[in-house]
Specification:
The protein is mostly helical and about 450 residues long. It has a single domain, classed as Growth Hormone, Chain: A, CATH 1.20.1250. It contains 15 helices and no strands. It is globular and about 60 Å long.
């Protein structure tokens, strides 16, 4: 129901993220301290890109997000429902959580290796193609798996492949799009990602009779975009003169002292708490509709896809409204309070929904809250960067507030679901709502912003 637009920094890759509606900023390409928009290219800027480039970029980005989101939003849950219906809650959490760790760790490593690749064919293309092959192999393994451990193995392979694809694709804006076009191209990419989230459910509802296609078709869509991408976007090997960080330096860059920079730490913690609640919902909403509302998997996927369109509209609308108003009023914290209340209210409404209509209202509230939160929270995070000259480092740390909880939440969820008679989805959603309200407290503790 809620589509999840992934952050584009490879270090931030994870299976579940609160949608980031500021796609250009999510690329880490806009200087957070800038006060004006760049109108003309500088001598170091890449040339202006045309409509064909943008169309190919959107198609490839759509395929990438479809490959990444389909398993986490529907396909893996449906597969586990087929082979382990009795233990599905725990099995789904373990597969998404443990498998997601592979992608979380591999993301920054592959990003570093991609920067330093000196093959004649280029430094990005090998990672795009290799990642696609790995994702395809992993998808085939999951689709054919007869038992949960093999599903876990296949999903881990898929995550490694997605990390490789990410390492090859994420630098596109920085390397091929001039600064004055990045906002527009990034926003269009964000729209393609949102459409991919809706498509994940739509495909799921149509392909439940063909489980292998559930995992293979998204990769095939990416492959089509990739062929056009290779023809359209040039690539070159890394120069021997380029300074490439070591893997150790990359992981060391995620360290900071929260006691020295408490305001930034509170921002990080608030988003992490909200991410846990969002992931609880996105991971288990299918099972909720099966067990609590009585739908079949096919019916649930179709209904969720329809409401997903409303959710995208709510997310984008509230993101734009909150971002504009917070800039005009020069205040961030009130909008985060409102967003947290919307998210908590949406989770509680969904938790006790007696029918699909009420569930859809709760999900749309959740989407509106996440839209309002991400636009203002990103601005707040950039306002409170501890060291402006190290913006890249601290924005990478900021994005971990999404990717790390998004990987850990599926591992925590089965313990909550087991309370009582088991499959306690209302309690899981209410627990997520309490975490969302906790984000109000972390925001209140921030001293250097209003």
């Amino acid at each position: 129901m809620n589509t999840s637009v992934p952050p584009s920094d490879p270090a931030a890759l994870g299976p579940h993220q609160i949608p980031d509606t500021s796609a250009a900023a999510a690329e880490g390409l806009i200087d957070s301290t800038a006060t004006s928009v760049v109108e003309e290219p500088s001598s170091n800027e890449p040339p202006r890109v045309g409509l064909w480039f943008i169309a190919v970029y959107m198609l490839t980005y759509f395929g990438f997000n479809l490959t990444m989101l389909s398993p986490t939003l529907f396909s893996v849950a449906y597969k586990i429902q087929l082979i382990d219906p009795a233990g599905r809650d725990t099995s789904l959490g373990l597969v998404l959580g443990l498998g997601g760790i592979f992608g979380l760790v591999a993301g920054p490593v592959f990003g570093v290796l991609s920067d330093g690749t000196r093959l004649r064919w280029g430094r990005r293309r090998p990672w795009l193609l290799g990642g696609m092959v790995l994702a395809l192999v992993g998808g085939i393994i999951v689709g054919l798996a007869p038992i949960v451990p093999i599903v876990l193995f296949g999903f881990a392979v898929m995550q490694l492949g997605i990390a490789g694809m990410s390492a090859g694709f994420n630098p596109v804006l920085a390397e091929h799009v001039p600064t004055y076009q990045r906002g527009k191209v990034g926003a269009l990419g964000g729209a393609a990602a949102a459409l991919a989230g809706i498509s994940a459910y739509t495909l799921g509802s149509q392909l439940t009779g063909h489980v292998l296609l559930l995992f293979v078709l998204p990769v095939a869509v990416f492959a089509v975009g990739l062929v056009l991408f290779f023809v359209t976007v040039p690539d070159r090997p890394a120069s021997g003169n380029e300074r490439v960080q070591s893997v150790r330096e990359i992981f060391a860059s995620f360290l900071f002292n929260p006691l020295k920079y408490p305001d930034f730490a509170w921002v990080w913690l608030g988003k992490a708490m909200l991410q846990f609640g969002f992931t609880f919902f996105s991971t288990y909403q299918l099972y909720f509709m099966l067990s609590r509302l009585g739908y079949t998997a096919e019916e649930a996927a179709g209904l969720i896809a329809i409401v997903g369109g409303l959710s995208v509209f709510a997310t984008m609308s509230f993101a734009i409204l909150s971002g504009v108003l917070s800039d005009r009023l020069r205040r961030r914290k009130p909008f985060i309070y409102i967003a947290s209340a919307l998210i908590a209210g949406g989770l509680v409404t969904a938790a006790f929904a007696p029918d699909f209509l009420v569930f859809a209202i709760g999900g749309t509230m959740l989407a509106a809250g996440t839209g309002a939160f991400t636009s203002v929270d990103l601005a707040l995070a950039t306002d409170l960067l501890p060291e402006k000259e190290k913006a890249g480092k601290y924005m990478a740390i900021y994005y971990l507030s999404s990717s790390l909880p998004g990987t850990l939440a599926p591992l925590v969820a089965p313990a909550i679901l087991a309370i009582g008679a088991g499959s306690n989805y209302p309690l899981l959603f209410v627990f997520g709502a309490l975490l969302a309200l906790g984000a109000m407290v972390t925001t209140w503790r921030i001293r250097a912003a209003r």
